[in-house]
Design brief:
mainly alpha; two-stranded antiparallel ribbon; about 10% strand
């Protein structure tokens, strides 16, 4: 083996090592993206606030990964992970991840408006003639008057 062959072999081995490192990094990134996609879908179904998803994902990534098929697994057991169940288990420790209750079962203005009430936008309600007409119609018909937006 000549000195040139030896240098070429070293260069090839160095390139191979760099390629393997880049491949490992890309595989790790692809695995994280697969976990993120599965988690975001579960978070959407669970009703997480959009601004809480990143925090929840960071916490989930500490105890979850994806298998060779891109399916979420629990790191502790290696078994398939139910991300929806994991999210539900976090409700007591992280209540801020979910929206606050709004009305405790009350119908609310939008529900009232959608159920046959008389509605005006704020801009429409600023017009005195239009507001008076809507208020009179609400009185005549017995329907609620709702100002939206």
């Amino acid at each position: 083996m000549t000195e040139t062959d030896f240098e070429n072999t070293e260069a090839l081995q160095s390139a191979l090592a760099e390629t393997r490192a880049a491949l490992a990094e890309a595989q790790g990134r692809a695995a994280y993206l697969a976990l993120e996609a599965a988690f975001r879908a579960a978070a959407h179904v669970a009703g997480l606030r959009p601004d809480a998803v990143a925090d929840a994902l960071a916490l989930a990534a500490e105890s979850h990964a994806v298998d060779g098929e891109g399916q979420p697994v629990e790191l502790a057991t290696g078994e398939a992970a139910d991300l929806a169940a994991w999210l539900d288990s976090q409700r007591t420790d992280h209540p801020g991840w979910w929206p606050d209750s709004s009305g405790g079962g009350a119908a609310g203005v939008v529900a009232t408006a959608l159920s046959g009430g008389i509605t005006l936008t704020r801009a429409q309600a600023r017009d005195p003639a239009r507001y008076r007409a809507a208020r009179e119609a609400a009185s005549r018909t017995g329907l609620p008057l709702a100002i939206l937006g």
